[in-house]
Design a protein that fits this description.
Elements: H1 5-12, H2 15-33, H3 35-73, H4 78-92, H5 96-118, H6 120-124, H7 138-163, H8 167-175, H9 180-210, H10 222-233, H11 236-270
Helix pairs in contact: 2-3, 2-11, 3-4, 3-7, 3-10, 3-11, 4-7, 5-7, 7-9, 8-9, 9-11, 10-11
């Protein structure tokens, strides 16, 4: 019967996840059993630390900057709102790779020049040496680029969460004597958090994938190490199988966690 409980269970079963799990187990078996795959994995696993480090630091910084931009957009100050909107629209309109190159080769020299200008009294007094562009590590240039790019998208997530809170609750809090900070902390933030957590998690997963772009700057992440290894050994098939396996292991597990978190939040809202 097409509508029997058995058929309904089969239709709801996550076959896609089973297929991914089997593919992952097959790749893992190849890494364990095959010396060539084991060597590739041993080379690339060092890039996992760099990938996660760049992603975590950039995501934390982008979340802080995005929250500031969102608060500016939702503020009653017209100048702040317009400036924040300008920032969001411009940054979201620039491709990630272009922004990465712009920050690395245009923004970094400008920031070093600004830092030297601020340190002019100390430099003239001989207390410190002038900074050079080489002092600005490419890993940090990549982190700054990811921070700037993702802050514009995260700002929109925060703005949507803040605006989802009923205006009447905010007005009631203000009428009870709560200032802006207490209203945001006790009324707006707890409710907005339920709305923004799932899309924030999805953005974190997206940032892990987009962090592969930092290999264009020579940052020793998974992609860069895979590119160097495959070009030296010509084992492109095996190398990029392992590269894909490492990225999928991180993104699929995080995506499943985000889905679980979203389901838990939906259950808590229904109670």
């Amino acid at each position: 019967m097409p509508n029997s409980p058995h058929s309904q269970v089969l239709s709801r079963f996550p076959w896609w996840l089973l297929a991914i799990a089997l593919l992952g187990l097959f790749t893992l078996w190849a890494i364990v059993a095959d010396q060539g795959y084991a060597e590739i994995f041993d080379t690339l696993r060092r890039g996992v630390v760099t990938t996660l480090w760049v992603t975590l630091v950039a995501f934390v910084l982008a979340s802080g900057l995005g929250l500031g931009v969102a608060l500016a957009r939702t503020s009653g100050n017209a100048w702040l709102s317009q400036a924040a909107t300008f920032y969001v629209e411009v940054i979201r309109g620039i491709p990630m790779l272009v922004a990465l190159f712009y920050v690395a080769f245009v923004g970094a020299p400008a920031m070093v020049a600004a830092a030297n200008w601020l340190l002019t009294p100390l430099i003239e007094a001989g207390l410190t040496d002038p900074l050079t562009v080489r002092n600005f590590d490419f890993t940090w240039r990549a982190i700054v680029a990811l921070t700037v790019c993702y802050s514009a998208f995260i700002a929109e997530i925060f703005r949507a969460g803040i605006e989802a809170v009923e205006r009447g609750q905010i007005e009631a809090a203000r009428s009870l004597g709560l200032n802006r900070w207490h209203t945001f902390r006790f009324i707006v933030a707890p409710q907005a958090l339920r709305t923004i957590l799932p899309p924030l998690g999805n953005d974190f997963v997206s940032m892990i994938k987009d962090s592969a772009l930092v290999s264009a700057l020579g940052v020793q992440d998974i992609t860069q190490l895979g590119k160097v290894y495959s070009s030296g050994t010509f084992k492109f098939f095996e190398t990029y199988n392992v590269v894909a396996f490492l990225y999928l292991s991180m993104t699929i597990s995080l995506s499943l966690f985000v889905r679980w978190l979203e389901a838990r939040l939906r259950q808590s809202q229904d109670r």
